[in-house]
Amino acid sequence: MKRLKVSGLAAALLAGALGAAMASPASADFTPQPRDIVGGGSDTTQFAMNNLADGALVGGSLATGYNFTANSRLVSFDAITPDGATHNQITLKAGSAAITRPNGSTEGKNLLHGTGNNVNANYARSSSALGSGEVTDGLYLVPFAVDGMRLAVRAAGTNAPATITPAQMVDIYQGDITNWNQIGGADGVIVPMIPQPGSGTRATFEAQLQASNGGVAVVLGGSVVETQEHDPAPIAADPNAVAPFSTGRASFAPEISLVTGPGSWAFTRALYNAVRSADRTASWFGPLFGTAGFVCSPAAKSLIAAAGFQQLAGPLDDGVCGVATQAATTNFTVAP
User: Fold this and answer.
1) pLDDT band at 25 (very low <50, low <70, confident <90, very high)
2) Contact at 8 Å (CB) between 18 and 101?
């Protein structure tokens, strides 16, 4: 989460000075005010939401975000701190009790419903569809961008082959294929990695494993290692590692490569912000997340692209950006 609010000529003066900070959109947290619109959750979309809140460098110039003119700031707590810490204490709004930082889509959405319902959380970043309990409790997803998923391996010297089919992926993760030389790679014992529990990327990937296994849930093999989602370091450190990865996030991780050979597993998904049912009529919802709100506006397109994703088109362009739903989005029409 960054904190930045500029106006007038200040934008031009800050553009050069903020270059390094805006290129790496994670910095120290602060305590939001009661009127601010506050959320957290998905690691996948944290940089996109930082850009949408505070702006980003686009083509060498500062593209301003929602907070440039908004009276109530958009605040997005990163899933992890810049130094890699997780589950430390944060304060959602001034005057409220500290809570554990949510890391992943599920932990973010848990702040909006059930026993963890917290009135100081307004939305949650999510890279996965709603679970049945979340639907029952009245959560809605508001789609705004499209992302891809592929398997990632080390860029410099992997033992993995150029192609990993969906069926081979299933066999790797359930422990039936254990060496890369079994599917055309070099000799090396495979180290399959999967994001931490509660990750939207993990939930999506496990659903894809099941779909690729004839609809039967895959029981993960004993060699599967849990890692922080979208952390390239453990993948880059091991020539035998493989992990599901956001294509948008991978575009900023040159130390890894995506497996893109013919027939390799690939998946397209929407990215969302989750809200409570009642908040769909809140005064802040429409101007921020709605079909005519900032997140779906032309001004937001470059900010979303700067985080590696494509903005979804709005209803006027046959898209679904800003259309609250309880079902997974399958319309991936992007903004023209």
Assistant:
1) very low
2) no
Fold (topology level) of 10-146+271-317:
D-Maltodextrin-Binding Protein; domain 2 (3.40.190)
Find how far residue 259's CA is from the centre of its chain: 20
147-268 — its CATH code?
A: 3.40.190.10
DSSP three-state, residue 288: helix
Q: Strand, coil or helix: what is 236?
A: helix
Tell me the pLDDT tens digit for each residue of 63-81: 999 999 888 899 999 999 8
Mean pLDDT of 166-186: 98
Q: Which residues pair with 110 in a beta bridge?
A: none
Same fold, 10-146+271-317 and 147-268: yes
Buried b (16+ CB within 10 A) or exposed e, 165-179: bbebbbbbbbbebee
Beta strand 37-41 pairing with 123-126: parallel
pTM comes to 0.90
Cα-based angle 268, 51, 77 (whole degrees, multiple of 5): 90
Domain-wise residue ranges, the chain: 10-146+271-317, 147-268
Contact between residue 148 and residue 244 where contact means Cβ atoms under 8 Å apart: no
Q: Rounded to whole angstroms, how far apart are CA atoms 13 and 7?
A: 10
Cα–Cα distance measured from residue 243 to residue 151, given in angstroms and rounded to the nearest whole number = 5
State which H helix or E strand residue 132 sits in. Answer: helix 132-136
Q: Which two tokens stand for residue 16?
A: 């050069």
> 302: helix, coil or strand?
helix
